[in-house]
Amino acid sequence: MKVAVMTTFGGPEVFRIEERADLSPEGDELVIEVRAAGINRPDVFQRKGHYPAPPNVIQEIPGLEVSGVVRAVGPDAKKFNVGDEVMALLPGVGYATQACVSERACLPKPKNLSFEEAACLPETVYTVWHNVFQRGRLKKGEKVLIHGGTGGIGTTAIQICKIFGAIVYCTVGSEEKRKIALDLGADKVINYKTEDFVDILKPVGVDVVLDSIGGVYFNKHIALLHEDGRLVQINAMEGAKVELNLLKLMQKRITVTGSTLRGRDLSFKAELTHEIETNILPLLEKGELRPLLTKIFPFEEVIEAHRYFESPEQYGKIVLRMNG
């Protein structure tokens, strides 16, 4: 099989395509012939040396989501068979033409989606469902604020939150991206480069915030949240250390929570997979939810793909297409 290996930490140029031995499944694992692999922000952090893979995962090959065809099954696999089309959540090593993963972290690929579209889904859908609906307990009719509205997580979150009846606010960095977010269903879109989201949303407040920024945004969110509001952190791109006035937290009964998905154990991911198969897969199969796939790069152009991913004009999801 072919893999995209990081030769060191640094910029996109650290990648090199190499050949390695084919994979063999054990237990309930599947070996997937990968047709497409999604690119995500954690891949960039890993490439720069800021987000190491879990201890039992190969460090030098990023990649958290793939789609493809099952080429081999372990002796304990019961759900999928050779030839099935699947999409899978991985702890790493997705930038490869083969992937090996427990079938409990796999979903059947909807027939109405291409392999490239399917590869956009696992990391984003799992992240949104767990953080917004499980940890954030978002309910129909509540107001949710999503930062990075046109990123992979944001474009997925806007759609799912609207489908489940929420009022959706989000921030973006340009007028072009404002239109994209509105087209996805957002009720109000704020250009953070020209507008202050606190000034705009303070009169109405919010019930849930999905935040990847951290830093000075933290206390802005505390001010915006309604009583019994929920602040959910999935990253802290502008700073992980913040100050908190505990009295404000107590007076509003605010819940502050957050998570990282990659290092969670298989039993957790299996339960989350079951919930997503129940609640989200039918929406995909009916076409009510669809990933915003904006750019496809051949696998051999992984360097160019990462360069584009870090450019200001990119939005939605970017994937690598494997040969075959």
UniProtKB/TrEMBL annotation:
InterPro entries recorded: ADH-like_C (IPR013149), ADH-like_N (IPR013154), ER (IPR020843), GroES-like_sf (IPR011032), NAD(P)-bd_dom_sf (IPR036291), Quinone_OxRdtase_PIG3 (IPR014189)
Keyword tags: NADP, Oxidoreductase
Highest taxon of source: Bacteria
Keyword set includes NAD: no
One Pfam assignment: ADH_N
Domain Enoyl reductase (ER): 10-320
NCBIfam families: quinone_pig3 (TIGR02824)
Protein's name according to its UniProt entry: NAD(P)H quinone oxidoreductase
Organism: Sphingobacterium mizutaii NBRC 14946 = DSM 11724
